[in-house]
Amino acid sequence: MSKEVESTVSASVFFNFDWFAESIADLGYSFFYFKIVPKAELPSLCVPKENAAEISEALISIANRAKLGLSVKINADGKTITTLSEIRAIILENPVTQLRFSDGTRTLSIKLEQWSFEGSSLVAPCANLITKEINLEAPSAKLFFGVPGRNLRELFDAPLSDQCTLDIDAVYSWVNPNDENWKMQFEEHINDAEASNHRLSTRGLTTRRKLKRRSVSFENGEGLKYSLRSLFKFAPWIRHIYIVSNCPPPSWLDESHQKITWVYHETIMSLDNLPTFNPNAVDSAIHKIPNLGDHYLYLQDTIFLTKPTEKSDFFTPAGLAMIRLTLDGLVHGDLRERDPDFLNAARNSQRLIIEEFGQVPTKLHNYSPLSVVRSVAATCEQNFAKAYQSTRARRFSSIDDISPRAFLYPHFALMSGMATQDDDTSLVLDPQFQHIQTFDQFPERIFTGDTKGLPLCLSIESIIDSERMLNWEQVVTRFVRLTFIEASPLEK
Q1: Looking at the DSSP assignment, which residues form a beta bridge with residue 262?
Q2: Cα–Cα dist 313/35, whole Å
Q3: Angstrom distances, CA of residue 21 to CA of 59, 143, 266, 456
Q4: Most buried pick, 129, 138, 234, 259, via CB within 10 A?
Q5: What would you measure as the largest C-alpha separation in the chain, in angstroms?
Q6: How much helix, strand and coil, in percent to the nearest 5, is found in the chain?
Q7: Short-list 92, 114, 146, 97, CA closest to 48
Q8: β-pairing verdict for 303-305 and 457-460
Q9: Is 56 in contact with 88 (CB distance < 8 Å)?
């Protein structure tokens, strides 16, 4: 296949900033260029000012070969320029130009920066978080300029001071409610629990009625598949992935892959407490996974990353967990059987934190990956050993449970000085609200790397209420399949 055909195919299937930067090299231009890829702004393609004419021709050539529309937005009056001769003139006249490429359905926006030679330095036309000036006489600069297309971070031969360099694992807890053995055990033990007047949470218990309402979109591991795709795409630095379950792996998963370990409940929990259908009980034992690193992210299969991340989005350079709490306080009052189990579990956890620290936390952890330091999680269990043991002993969610994941560990870590609070957001989508517009616009933005304003992740509610949104299943399925199209290495 020719490079021209490859470029066209890549653009029609998927194009992003990295593809665009690589396409310049494919054209054979000799000028030097490098990249700046900030998390919250448009990525920048940087070239020396003296090469402005050449880069304009390169960009136009790439757009033509890949059959992309090219336009420039003039910020002063909001006018959009599409005539190629005018685009060339604008690039030559402006040190910073915002370019927009489109294939008719998706768009890619980038900044073109023209850096100027001033004495022995190369100076940026606008500020960035790395360096505005490159000393051309420094040995590191000579090495950097030897390879075009590199990220400006690579100018330095060591990580920057704001970068976390620790090994970080990922952990999922997962269940397949369609597994016949799981269903048989569930029916057997739920009957026993109800017959023995187990102190079950009225709304928190996963009952037969709720199982029937579960969205087909996330059965048979489809939610897990697409969440893993988002993880590989936006957090490729994850060292190893552990999936905790009491069900066999889904048929599409290659469990022999060296980067994954399937962990059955009996590996981390006492046989006396199994089988368990209590997510709080499972959450309380995650840190007991053999060989799990001291730093890991804990996720559910309904969480999907939406933009490129770095280790420093989840842990500080010193290794402190970055805890993301909800914007609003929610936890107050006594236990009430009619309330959701997560709220009662948080109330029980709140009481323990008050007794330990004399302060009152009211916020839950938001619906994003939980940053965990394993040794801190173990210390949290030691401090509240009785509550942990009691929760693990309950096969089903109970009004007496604690919430290790959503409340107890995050606040214990924060109040112990072993974590810091982060303000990155997550977005929860559920059928109670009309989120069709979000589903329609996010795939394009995630595809093209237009990350400004995007939340860290999306959390998609997988329990449907047909009376509120009949097409929720179809909407969710279409969204994840359009957004995360690239298979992960873990798929057969």
Answers
A1: 243
A2: 20
A3: 10, 19, 48, 25
A4: 234
A5: 84
A6: 40, 20, 45
A7: 114
A8: antiparallel
A9: yes
> What DSSP assignment string belongs to 387-453?
HHHHHHT-SS-BTT---IIIIIHHHHHHHTTSEEEE---EEEE-TTS--HHHHHHHHHHHHHT--TT
Angle at which helices 374-383 and 385-392 pack, to 10 degrees?
A: 100
pTM tops 0.90: no
Q: Which of 173, 316, 309, 154 is nearest to 232 (CA)?
A: 309
What amino acid is encoded at 436 in this protein? I
Token pair listed for 366 = 């938001």
Element (H, E) at 359: none
Q: Which two tokens stand for residue 14?
A: 């998927």
d(CA 201, CA 342): 10
Phi, psi of 484 (to 5 degrees): -115, 75
Residue type, 50: E
Place of tokens 């390879």: 147
Nearest to 65 by CA among 6, 131, 129, 108: 6
Measured between alpha carbons, how far is 187 from 192 in angstroms, rounded to an integer? 9
Query: What does the alpha-carbon distance between residue 119 and residue 135 come to, in Å, rounded to a whole number?
Result: 9
Residue with tokens 């490129």: 308
Closest CA relative to residue 336, chosen from 322, 348, 320: 348
Q: Contact, 108 vs 63, CB < 8 A?
A: no
Q: How far apart are CA 287 and CA 293, in angstroms?
A: 9
Q: Which two tokens stand for residue 388?
A: 């942990």
Q: Which amino acid is at 362?
A: T
For 78, residues 6+ apart whose C-beta sits below 8 A from its C-beta are none
Residue 75 CB-density burial (10 A; 0-12 exposed, 13-18 middle, 19+ buried): exposed
* Terminal C-alpha separation, the chain: 26
Burial 90-106 (b: 16+ CB within 10 A, else e): bbeeeeebbbbbbbeeb
Mean pLDDT by 10-residue block, N- to C-terminus, for the chain (492 residues)? Answer: 33 62 81 84 90 91 88 71 88 92 80 95 94 94 88 90 95 91 88 60 46 48 90 95 96 95 98 94 98 97 91 96 94 90 95 97 95 98 98 92 97 97 83 66 73 83 54 77 89 94
Contact indicator for 263, 245 with CB cutoff of 8 Å: yes
Buried b / exposed e along 424-459 (16+ C-beta atoms within 10 A): ebbbbbbbeeebeeebeebbbbbbbbbbeebbbbbb
Place of tokens 């489109």: 102
Nearest to 126 by CA among 60, 75, 53, 59: 75
